[in-house]
Write a structure and sequence with these properties.
- By secondary structure, the chain is of the alpha/beta class.
- It has four domains: 2-27 and 164-176 and 183-242, Phosphohistidine domain (Glucose Oxidase, domain 1, 3-Layer(bba) Sandwich), CATH 3.50.30; 43-151, Enzyme I, Chain A, domain 2, CATH 1.10.274; 283-433, Phosphoenolpyruvate-binding domains (TIM Barrel, Alpha-Beta Barrel), CATH 3.20.20; 471-589, Phosphoenolpyruvate-binding domains (TIM Barrel, Alpha-Beta Barrel).
- The strands form two sheets. A nine-stranded mixed β-sheet has the order 1-2-9-8-4-5-6-7-3. An eight-stranded parallel β-barrel has the order 10-11-12-13-14-15-16-17, surrounded by five helices.
- The chain is globular.
Length: 589
């Protein structure tokens, strides 16, 4: 937090959704259930307490069902999140364990629920995968709703707010977010949450500026304070000075004009001045997000993360269920590539029903392809669903976290077995789909020449690759300054991957955060990467910048980059060489 002489306060958090808005703060009261008393019951009162808990769950379920029915049309694609919460209400992880504690320990329902949540939440929060870690929020939202039903605390109905404001809350559940009236809520700020939270996904889809993970915003900001929300930089300014307001208004106008201009050209190809064609794709986690990729001018789906189809359930999905979800995506883009990544879950009970025991170091344990090769029945179900969806369009398959060629060979064999079983059963499918791997483990880079002989393309997952190359937890605040895509070790690693793929005659794609960073573009084009995949909202910006560059110039620039010794030097060189172009992006001041 920065305090200026003018009483202006600057808070820095996480960009939940891009955009800039200025308005009065509206604090959403989330208090009332933080302090829970514990008391013991007489044996004769235990059954009554269990019934009281069941009634609270039933009340919460009715509330969520009503919210789904009343969901505005623009929020309908996100109603499935509320359905997930309804399922969680009766999940044995929450529901069953709470009842067990009431009965075995003879304690009140509030205390039993709090105890269960305090045990379950850390299990998710300790996960290395940010998307899965943010699923702890679902546990929080569901338990909070039950707790308020138990205690009788009234919930604020965000849908009834009748003035233009910026919401400020400890957290906003998906159920609350989809009640937002778009003509009244200009943006929102939360203490909790991150880029992968459901609330953040909804905000980005609806173009509502949001900054999340501010930690103390609700204790600093007061009702009716004037605040600036800059979702592009993840910054909130409280009580801005007149000079700051003028500067922000100009930047907001420039931002909106720029976004409108590039949006009009977003469906044009991303060709450099000297005709190097770069495909710009979109990353999605949910089938519903494919519409966003299409509307922003994406050339296809560069990464379809399939984990959510497993996360939102209490048991493994069936082949038919997976097939229908994959088909939904392919049908929207029948003539454009759809890269489906096979199941990439962590071995720390990310999907509780999937693991038999806990691991000391799940980030390096039984996860992704390792889990799938051990649980071949689960893997084959997914492979069959992917092969069936491939008959409807241009489907590719990606195997995640490959560390050696043996894993590729074994995965391809299982893919062949899946195709053979479909053939024998007379079920329509397509077998000749391109096969690729995620390059995100150093051993895969070192043996890339061997692996290249077994695949059709490499897809570089820079988020994990940088983390493993640098031995840095990218979500550790104390190490954030060391995690940088521009580090010479990262650039040299990417150069090795691209050189091997070019020599082998296969394509190189990139789907990590680096792919959507405008400042990385000159380097990535210089490396000769064929496709970049990113958050759908970033597509128009990246396409626009590509059309201002010369591919031939970026090769010479890359040579200079490789001579630099530090990330700071590379950033400075990029600014000197391409600052005038990059300064026109929405990331500029």
């Amino acid at each position: 937090m920065q305090q200026k002489e003018s009483n202006e306060i600057i808070l820095t958090g996480i960009s939940g959704a891009p955009g800039i808005c200025i308005g009065k703060a509206y604090l959403v009261d989330k208090e009332g259930v933080d302090v829970v008393a514990k008391y013991h019951l007489k044996e004769s009162g235990i059954k009554k307490e269990v019934n009281r808990f069941k009634s609270a769950v039933q009340k919460a379920q009715k509330e969520l069902t009503r919210i789904i029915k009343e969901t505005p049309e623009e929020f309908k694609p996100h109603a499935y999140i509320i359905e997930t919460h309804i399922a969680l209400l009766k999940d044995k992880m929450l529901y069953g364990r709470t009842i067990d504690i009431i009965e075995k320990e003879g304690v009140n329902a509030e205390w039993a629920l709090k105890k269960v949540v305090s045990n379950v939440k850390p299990m998710f929060e300790s996960m290395s995968n940010s998307y899965l870690r943010d699923r702890s929020e679902d546990i929080t939202h569901v338990s909070d709703r039950i707790m308020k039903s138990l205690t009788g605390v009234e919930r604020i109905n965000i849908g009834e707010i009748n003035k233009k404001v910026i919401l400020v809350a400890v957290d906003l559940s998906p159920a609350e977010t989809i009640q937002i009236q778009l003509e009244r809520i200009k943006g929102f700020i939360t203490d909790r949450g991150g880029m992968a939270s459901h609330t953040s996904i909804i905000a980005r889809t609806l173009n509502i500026p949001a900054v999340m993970g501010l930690e103390r915003a609700t204790s600093i900001i007061r009702h009716d304070d004037i605040v600036i929300v800059d979702g592009t930089t993840g910054t909130v300014i409280v009580n801005p000075s007149e000079q700051t307001l003028i500067k922000t208004e100009k930047r907001k106008a420039r931002y909106e004009a720029y976004r409108s201009a590039i949006a009009r050209k977003s469906h044009l190809p991303a060709d450099t001045i000297d005709n190097f064609h770069l495909k710009i794709m979109g990353n999605i986690e949910l089938p519903e997000e494919v519409v966003s990729v299409f509307s922003y001018g994406g050339d296809g789906i560069g990464l379809y993360r399939t984990e959510f189809q497993y996360m939102r359930r209490l048991s493994f999905p069936t082949e038919e269920q997976l097939y229908e979800r994959y088909k939904d995506v392919v049908d929207v883009m029948p003539d454009k590539p759809v890269n489906i990544r096979t199941l990439d879950i962590n071995g720390d009970k990310a999907v509780q029903y999937a693991f038999d025991e806990e691991e000391a170091n799940p980030a390096l344990g039984l996860r992704a392809i390792r889990y799938c090769l051990k649980k071949t029945d689960v893997f084959k179900t997914q492979l069959r669903a992917i092969l069936r969806s491939a008959q409807h369009g241009d489907v590719r398959i990606i195997f995640p976290m490959i560390s050696n060629v043996e894993e590729v060979i074994e995965a391809k064999k299982l893919l062949g077995d899946a195709a053979e079983s479909l053939y024998k059963e007379g079920i329509p499918f397509r077998a000749d789909i391109p096969v690729g791997i995620m390059v995100e483990v150093p051993s895969a880079v070192i043996t890339a020449d061997v692996i290249a002989q077994e695949v059709d393309f490499f897809s570089v997952g820079t988020n994990d690759l940088i983390q493993y190359v640098m031995a840095i937890d990218r979500d550790n605040r104390h190490l954030a300054h060391l995690y940088h895509p521009m580090h010479p070790a990262v650039i040299r690693t990417l150069k090795t991957i691209c050189e091997v793929s070019h020599q082998a005659g296969i394509s190189t794609y990139m789907c990590g955060e680096m792919a959507g960073d405008p400042s990385s573009l000159p380097i990535l084009i210089g490396l000769g990467i064929n496709e970049l995949s990113m958050n759908p909202q970033s597509i128009p910006v990246i396409k626009s910048i590509v059309r201002t560059l010369k591919a031939e110039d970026t090769k010479g620039f890359l040579d200079e980059v490789l001579k630099q010794h530090t990330a700071t030097q590379i950033i400075k060189l990029t600014q000197e060489s391409y600052g005038s172009i990059l300064s026109d992006t929405l990331y500029s001041e």
